User: Which sequence fits this backbone?
């Protein structure tokens, strides 16, 4: 808990990190406002109220099927944030564990993990996600698995390299008889956590972009699900009638990805 406590200290945040945290808070507030005060069904249609302007009842108006833009945008943002959270947690756990073992123990651990990473790197990441998405269209779980499968490699490569460089500094503790867990907690983790945080921020942004990209190609989640890439496809044909509809998901993607990138600590 100590690293998390240190991260949350007010003085530890730079100006850009505060901006990123503010943007994330703003987007989460939008989701909370819809859940607490409106609670509209994002799939509920009302063909008599298509392309309605913003009002008290519908702060962001309605789309071409009369569905609430607030409800659909909130649902899409929540799905993107959940995808970012799940993929970062899974890929970080796998990548950091494999990277530490490969860099520290070397031998067959290093050979096996490096071989698996090279197989993943042999294919472009988006192509691999599209392949998994095409196998079972519309499955959030499959997309989560595919994006996590790609992202763990970045953690593995960075942590493996950093661990190798840190191993000489652990020899004194090893000679005094301290165990592996103490050495990891005392020598490796304090040096690795900043790199892991940076990789997690970029990984969250990349997961959101990947989900939106495959949604835009109509291989991701399927209607009537609300997802940012899918919303762009649905609204693109109505750009002359209601251009603001297309700006909503585009703006949400920009703010989500930008907020995570701003959270990265400057050197």
Assistant:
């Amino acid at each position: 808990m100590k690293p998390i406590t240190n991260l949350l200290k007010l003085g530890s945040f730079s100006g850009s990190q505060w901006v990123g945290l503010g943007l994330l808070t703003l987007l989460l507030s939008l989701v909370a406002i819809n859940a607490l005060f409106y609670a509209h069904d994002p799939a509920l249609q009302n063909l008599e109220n298509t392309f309605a302007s913003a009002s008290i009842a519908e702060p962001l108006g309605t789309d071409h099927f009369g569905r609430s833009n607030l409800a659909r945008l909130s649902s899409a943002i929540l799905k993107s944030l959940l995808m970012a959270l799940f993929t970062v947690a899974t890929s970080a756990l796998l990548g950091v564990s494999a990277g530490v073992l490969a860099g520290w123990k070397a031998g067959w651990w290093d050979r096996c993990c490096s071989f698996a990473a090279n197989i993943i790197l042999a294919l472009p990441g988006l192509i691999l996600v599209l392949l998994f998405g095409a196998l079972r269209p519309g499955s959030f779980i499959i997309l989560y698995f595919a994006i996590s499968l790609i992202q763990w490699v970045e953690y593995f490569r960075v942590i493996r390299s950093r661990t190798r460089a840190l191993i000489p500094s652990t020899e004194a503790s090893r000679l005094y008889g301290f165990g592996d867990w103490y050495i990891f907690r005392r020598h490796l983790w304090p040096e690795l956590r900043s790199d892991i945080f940076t990789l997690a921020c970029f990984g969250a942004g990349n997961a959101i972009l990947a989900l939106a990209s495959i949604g835009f190609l109509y291989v991701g989640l399927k209607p009537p699900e609300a997802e940012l890439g899918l919303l762009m496809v649905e609204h693109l044909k109505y750009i002359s009638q209601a251009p603001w509809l297309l700006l909503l998901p585009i703006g949400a993607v920009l703010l989500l990805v930008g907020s995570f990138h701003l959270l990265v600590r400057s050197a």
